[in-house]
Design brief:
alpha/beta; 2 domains; seven-stranded mixed β-sheet
């Protein structure tokens, strides 16, 4: 047992050292030039009546562009008043041109494929209807793409903190995002977020071709995994971030993570199959140790020392990493993440393998298939 615990802690420390090696903690400050090329913003919307106007208002405040941004907003059969709210406000935006569409088919992925085929601008920025885009977000991605001579760029997605539960989810999201950033720099883009993605016009057809329509989501992940090691630029800095709200509840958070995990069967082979399994086994092992410690009566022994060492590893690295986005790793959130993350990763990983239905934006989904 002692050998098992030492081996588990060693692999955990090695994982964090690996991530630390590829995370750019102090990206160079730059002065962005005016973007002279035409730029499209593509958004697929469903049931976002409370957020879509804020999203469009934030895009309208983007600066550094010679001409207006062209927003292609496609409504994926919303059952609230999202479409009507946009239609009422569409003429009030003075820095963007909005093309409002109604999707012909059902599902976000099909809606995106439909609207992307209409884009003729030089650059295409993809985001979500519940995101707030910072003034420099879009042009910072364009800058990184140009400097590195790439036709694709990825940026971070941060959670807005309004309560302790949202702080906890923001903490977990940022931890996950640092893993994604490190994998990007490592040359294995396994965990990108499509809510902050830039494509050149030349890459739109490749993006469409990479989509697996048998999966309700995953447009971002399936495309990123089709890229070569030098096929993209990473712009993971505060200026490039978009901000979104955390899930409304822990149930919504669970459904979101289950939706993400359910894409695993569609991943390409090799690293993309093995890395999630490695993370799952690590967390399942820590869950086993925690359950054993509880079952044995919360004794002060090797089990407790192992769990404390796990927390110390996380705390040490997060305290350094989180400063990049002006966020502090609070003690309580850090402690709860140490306890809860092995539970949620283990449970979500196991449930993603069975036909468990869950709700996603008012639709019933089973293993990535839209049922209704």
């Amino acid at each position: 047992m002692m050998l098992f615990m030492i081996s588990l802690l060693t692999t955990y420390l090695v994982l964090f050292l690996f991530l630390h090696r590829f995370i750019d903690l102090k990206p160079a400050k730059v002065e962005y030039n005016i973007v002279k090329e035409s730029v499209a913003v593509v958004i697929a919307m469903r049931n976002e009546e409370n957020r879509i106007i804020s999203c469009l208002e934030s895009i309208n405040l983007s600066h550094g562009f010679e001409s207006k941004l062209h927003v292609y907003l496609v409504d994926d059969h919303s059952i609230d008043s999202s479409y009507e709210k946009v239609k009422e406000r569409i003429k009030q935006f003075d820095q963007i041109e909005v093309t409002l569409l109604e999707a012909k088919d059902i599902g976000k992925k099909k809606a995106l494929i439909e609207v992307l085929s209409m884009v003729s601008e030089s650059w295409c920025f993809l985001t979500d209807a519940d995101c707030v885009v910072q003034p420099d977000s879009i042009r910072s991605l364009i800058y990184r793409a140009k400097v590195q001579n790439k036709e694709i760029a990825y940026g971070p997605v941060l959670y807005n903190i309004t309560s302790f539960s949202s702080e906890l989810m923001a903490y977990e999201n940022l931890n996950t995002q640092f893993v994604g950033e490190a994998l990007l720099k490592f040359g294995k883009p396994a965990m990108v977020n499509g809510a902050n993605t830039l494509l050149s016009k030349n890459m739109i057809s490749s993006y469409i071709a990479s989509q697996n329509i048998n999966y309700a989501s995953g447009d971002d992940v399936f495309f990123s995994q089709s890229l070569g090691e030098d096929g993209y630029a990473a712009s993971y800095e505060l200026d490039s971030a978009v901000i979104t709200s955390s899930p409304d509840s822990m149930g919504s958070f669970f459904n979101q993570r289950l939706r993400w995990a359910s894409k695993y069967s569609g991943y390409s082979g090799g690293f993309y199959k093995l890395f999630p399994v490695f993370i799952f086994i690590q967390n399942l092992s820590f869950l086993f140790l925690f359950a054993s410690w509880v079952a044995l009566g919360f004794k002060f022994d090797g089990l407790l020392i192992t769990l404390v060492c796990k927390w110390l590893i996380e705390w040490a690295f997060h305290s350094v990493w989180f400063e990049k986005y002006n966020m502090r790793a609070s003690f309580l959130a850090s402690f709860l993440l140490t306890v809860l993350q092995p539970v949620h990763i283990s449970v979500v990983g196991l449930l993603s393998l069975v036909d468990l239905p869950y709700d996603w934006k008012g639709r019933n989904v089973v293993k990535q298939s839209l049922i209704d």
